[in-house]
Write a structure and sequence with these properties.
The chain is an alpha+beta fold. About 15% of the residues lie in helices and about 40% in strands.
Length: about 675
């Protein structure tokens, strides 16, 4: 049985520990404000990372349990940040998310207090955070934000903030991030675990713990609880001696997390701890396991009013669905008709969501989140008599889902899975430029969970589209160094989606105008775009490419044969890397340029052929420049068949790209005949 169901039905045993909270850590209150030192304010740089714009001096969080008239979690935090440079000023802006449900359960943020410390005339002065500077903002049906900016912040300031969150959702023990985008001098998390709830721990990141300890404390408290006797509820009371485990985790001198190219999600690699409720067991009661069971997870999600419940009340879509598939015999054509209807009539608001409050309201307003758009798609497919189910996805920015643990928080997006003729198709109606059967790059993240009775299943997140880019050109070189020619660019798959989305967002006229500026030496003219609306065909761009030359013929002509398509820098700049490289999709790029040489000139220098292949054929780069039938032909081809490389392969991949950059930088030299 899921935690949600436990809460909805009422706890089998309600502990009332007379307002007693779980034993804390015996020491002076570490959450007391005002412990900033003059040395903190005078600090001008952070020795372990002198480039840092700001540094977290101290970050402490503590989670404990409260047992009043129900079970609550209390989370307290205090954080101190030193601003070192102008581009670190945004570290004084804070967002505190909190959650509320329609059934009355909620989280409350309280005791939000803070100070800004500055050095003025050699003295440390502090400014208090005004309550009027704290704002509440509703994000969606369930999520809210407290937003604030610390007062009087400037380079050199130290900001200090503390707050408390009381939560009715005891299953959501807060995670803790030890690592941030700025370095962290000291980060500490404490949890007082009681014997009634058991949580599994998931650790991420590479930074080691400075302190990791657990101390058991015995505590006897008066209790009362309710237990069932037949159909009646009987009050009981007594005392309970329990062991509380006080956990403490500390990391110090944690380096700033720097996003690197082709990293699918920072959340998978930040040093942090996450917790998942796995068991609930009250005194004299049988244990109830609330995670680890995908079948129960699926059943409960299908019963959830804001998910499966929405799909159980879709009769309002039946007439529309019947009209969409009328006259279409083939099931696949019916699927395509329904998908096109949702893509055309629903506007995605850009939000990644799992739940929805009212599917009919979203359909009437013609807009919604990923959940609303794709649950509508699923509902219409079902009303049309097709075999469709919602599918939970964790987008690339959200991190990989945990295949072994059914945690809803590990998903942030919904798509639709439909089966036709025994073949499974994955559909997303949020993007108007997605060809049938293709998923946006953000969804290509391992596997997704199909929410289908009785048990659900994992399905790989793979698109059916080939991802390729083909650029060809026929060009003529003048004796003055001027170059004129016609180029054609063809895109399929993700490159086509990105190009179409760019054209649609800026408008075709504006896009063509901006595309015409090819750099300081080149101009694109007469741009024509084909197959913009025909998504199953390659997106094609044709244009004239021109470069002006000198006023008179030159003795030597220098040509960059890749024209405007050379890879000019290596995306992998770091000497070493600790994280995997994830391209998301295979890469297939081909460039073929044919040049007519000017009369009276001959080749003086030409790049040598090159071929670089990574072990196992994971990637291959080929470059050839040669004379064919009196024309100079230049071919550059890149193929990356392996989408994910581990950190140990980084050196080879970095060298692979370095050679490609070097080869693309080589010039062709033409010499005037004597």
């Amino acid at each position: 049985m899921s935690t949600t169901r436990l809460l909805q039905q009422g706890l089998l045993v309600l502990l009332i520990l007379l307002g007693v909270n779980t034993p804390g850590f015996c020491e002076q209150d570490p959450f007391k404000l005002g412990q900033v030192t003059p040395e903190n304010v005078k600090m001008t740089s952070y020795a372990p990372d002198t480039s840092a714009a700001a540094v977290v001096l101290y970050d402490l969080g503590e989670s404990s349990f409260l047992f009043n008239d129900n079970t609550q979690l209390q989370f307290k935090r205090i954080i101190r940040i030193k601003i070192l440079k102008k581009n670190g000023l945004d570290q004084a802006n804070f967002l505190i998310p909190y959650f509320r449900k329609g059934d009355g359960r909620k989280e409350e943020v309280s005791n939000v207090k803070g100070f800004t410390y500055n050095l003025e005339n050699g003295e440390m002065v502090k400014l208090k955070l005004d309550d009027k500077a704290i704002f509440d903002e509703k994000q969606d049906a369930n999520w809210y934000l407290k937003k604030l900016t610390m007062p009087g912040v400037k380079v050199g300031s130290v900001v200090e903030l503390t707050y408390t969150i009381k939560s009715d959702f005891f299953q959501l023990l807060r995670e803790w991030e030890f690592q941030h985008t700025i370095p962290v001098q000291w980060s500490e998390y404490r949890v007082g675990m009681v014997p009634f709830y058991e949580y599994s721990q998931a650790r991420y990141g590479l930074h080691p713990f400075h302190i990791k300890e657990a101390n058991v404390v015995r505590k006897t408290v008066p209790i009362s609880w309710k237990t069932g006797v037949g159909l009646a509820q009987v009050d009981k009371s007594g005392s309970l001696s329990m062991s509380v485990v006080n956990y403490r985790w500390v990391m110090k001198e944690v380096p700033a997390f720097t996003a690197e190219p082709y990293l699918s999600s920072a959340k998978d690699y930040l040093s942090k701890l996450e917790f998942e409720l796995s068991k609930v067991q009250y005194p004299d009661e049988k244990p109830q396991y609330v995670s680890g069971d995908w079948e129960s997870f699926t059943k409960e999600l299908l019963k959830e009013e804001e998910f499966g419940g929405q799909l159980a009340n879709t009769a309002f879509l039946k007439k529309t669905a019947e009209g969409l598939v009328a006259g279409k015999i083939e099931a696949l054509e019916q699927v395509k008709a329904v998908l096109e209807h949702v893509k055309t009539n629903m506007h995605w608001n850009g939000r990644h969501r799992i739940y929805t409050e009212n599917l009919r309201k979203a359909y009437d307003s013609r807009q919604g989140s990923s959940s609303e758009v794709n649950l509508l798609l699923t509902a219409l497919l079902r009303e049309a008599g097709l075999d469709a189910n919602p599918m939970l996805v964790s987008t690339r920015d959200h991190g990989k889902p945990l295949v072994g643990s059914p945690m809803l928080s590990k998903f942030d997006y919904v798509i639709s899975q439909v089966t036709v003729g025994g073949k499974s198709y994955l559909l997303d109606a949020t993007e108007k430029d997605l060809p049938f059967g293709m998923l946006p790059l953000r969804c290509l993240n391992g596997q997704g969970w199909v929410v289908q009775a009785p048990a659900g299943k994992w399905v790989p997140l793979l698109g059916t589209e080939k991802n390729s880019q083909l650029v060809s050109g026929q060009l003529k070189i003048q004796s003055t160094g001027a170059v004129t020619g016609t180029l054609t660019e063809d895109y399929l798959g993700v490159p086509a989606l990105l190009a179409r989305s760019s054209i649609r967002s800026t408008g075709q006229e504006t896009y063509i105008k901006e595309f015409g500026n090819a750099g300081p030496d080149w101009v694109r003219q007469g741009v024509k775009i084909q197959n913009l609306e025909n998504l199953q065909q390659p997106l094609k761009k044709e244009y004239q490419l021109n470069r002006t030359g000198d006023t008179s013929p030159a003795a030597l002509l220098y040509l960059s044969p890749m024209v405007t398509h050379a890879l000019t820098e290596n995306p992998f700049k770091l000497a070493t890397r600790q994280y995997p490289i994830d391209f998301g999709t295979p890469v297939d790029e081909t460039y073929l340029f044919k040049y007519q040489l000017p009369d009276g000139y001959e080749l003086e220098e030409m790049p040598q052929p090159a071929s670089v292949t990574l072990p196992g054929g994971a990637a291959k780069f080929t470059y050839v420049a040669q004379m064919v039938d009196g024309q100079l032909q230049v071919l550059s081809k890149l193929n990356i068949s392996k989408t994910t490389f581990n950190a140990e392969e980084y050196g080879n991949l970095r060298e692979f790209y370095s050679r490609m950059v070097a080869k693309h930088a080589e010039k062709i030299v033409l010499k005037k005949k004597i």
